[in-house]
Specification:
about 80 residues
Length: about 80
Amino acid sequence: MSRENIATVVKILESLSDAQQEQIIEHLREYIADLEDELQWDKSFQRTQNKLVEVARLAKQQIVQGKGQVIINYI
């Protein structure tokens, strides 16, 4: 984010009441935490994606060879 954008956000926040500022800041904290969680999930998935593909291929082979079975989840 550019300094100009940050300055604009600060000016907007300063024009609001303290209660409104606190509410917006809390919302931003939650939003940023959610973004960080998503980034962490994406990194974890990228690290394990090749292994997941390998396991899926093995499962398909085992099913074709009659060594495995399809699992159906009931809700």
